Every structure is written in structure tokens, then in C-alpha cells.
Fold this protein.
Amino acid sequence: MSPAASRGQRVVITGVGLVTPIGSSLEACSRALREDVSGVRVQPEWAQLGHLATRLGGEVLGVKMAGKDRKKIRSMGRVARLALTATEQAIADAGLGPDEIADLRTGLAYGSTHGSSSAYVDFARPLLARDSFEGLPSTSYLKFMSHTCAANLAQYYGVRGRVVSTCAACVSGSQAVGTGYEAIRAGRADVMICGGAEELHWTHAGVFDVMYATSTRYNESPERSPRPFDAARDGLVVAEGAGTVILEDYERAKARGATIYAEVAGYGASCDGTHVTNPSAEGMASAIRLGLEDAGVSADAVDYVNAHA
């Protein structure tokens, strides 16, 4: 048992849901990774945008809302629908029923960098063209607000416990998992639905393009990019997807016979306060040290590092 667990409740993962460009289930993603399958594709419509150098993006195919309650999904843009698809998988995988989800000790923490950009563009274009709000859908803001994933998932499932929206750029999803972990460890919740989602949109590609951060050398060979830590690397590729995990108090999970994938041993978070796009190494090191300290393990005990690259 880790020192963190000795100070509070142990936290385990009992459900997993994934929606990605290389597969929309844990099994499909695992298989694609082993087989070196790329989810990066050329986005031909981006060629119509002036001064956009990159043509590469990772798109999720086959997201369907058939059979869903129209009243519950009409306020969801693409990013929230990706989050819903992953969350459905995770809840089913964990074997949680409606009463358990509605329990006051079940909460939700979900993150994204922003809301649905496609919904925002659909809202802004006619507004700016006509200088009028006439005819604009009342659900527009609910789709592109920064907390759209957390808010829409909460109302879809009737979550009555704590609901937290984490908006922290590329660590939004990780921060959501950390938030859920801390809530359970502190005894504030028994179950937390946690995750993150982003949607693919040309505005995202443009934001990184103007910072000269996107991959442009492989526009005709998308399977060759991105390639972090490689001598031939040339930038990032924007993509979309969603991932949801069910975090649960260990004793509760064990008592109900749930499948336990792993234990969350520790979590660390910090901000270096120096630069938005060029953070210092010391700031990142501080977060790592805090996580290792929380877990009660040394750096040489870590056998896998998932880097932001």
C-alpha cells in the first residue's frame, strides 16, 4: 500500500472507455497500437484555407448518436458527443447502474481545452455577417462553452454529486483524473467519472500553425507523422478523441466484485508561472516530484513515461 493510501482511501480504476482515431474501444486501441496503425489522415478541405501549412489531422470515424434521447443531446457539440461515447463505455465496463450514478457520493470531473469549435464557428459566422442574433439556436452556447463536456455529461446521466470542469490546455484530462483521485482519497466521494475530450477542427490546426508547431513535411504521407523524439520530427498533428475512466474507492470496488484495472498511486500538479507555450523544465519536474512523493515511490521504480511530445 502506498503512503498516499495510508493517509486516505485507496483509489482504483474499474471502468475504461476510449474513442480515438485508431479505434473506439480499449481492445481496438490496444490492437492498433501493437500493429502500428496510424490514425492520422490528410484533411483535404483544409487546402481551401489560406496560409494554413499543415494538412494532417486525426479524426474519429463513426461516432453515432442513434437511439439517444434527442432532448439530452441537442445541447452537445461534437466534443461533448465524443465524451459521451467514451463515458458510456466506461460506465458499462464498470457495471454502474443509474441509482449508483445518481448517488450524492458519485461525482464527475471532465476536461477539455475548450468547447466545440465547430459550434462556435456556426454561431459566429451568421452573427458577424448580419450583425444580428436572429435565428441563432438557443443551444449554441451550451455546445461551445468551455465546460460543455462536464455539464452535458452531468445532465445526461443525472449526476448529483460534485461536478468539476477542468480546463488546463493539454493536461485537462489528466487534471480531471487527478481531481477525481483526490476527492475519493479524501473521503469526499466514492465514485468519480473522469476524463477528457477534444474535437478536431481547422481552427485548432491554425492556432498551432501560426506558432510554427505543426507537422508540414509529411502532408503527402500522413502515416509518417507525428514522430516525437525522432531526428526527422517536424511538429505536432492535431487530433480528436475522448477517454473516460471510472475511479472508485478500493473497498467499495472490492465489495461489489468489480474488475480492478489498476490503482492510482499518486498525483502531482504544479505551474511554473513562466511562459504559456514554453514551460520550464523545473516546473515540469516539480509536478513529477509531487506525484512520486504522493505515491511513495522513487523515480527508478517507474517503468513507463507517457510524455507530452
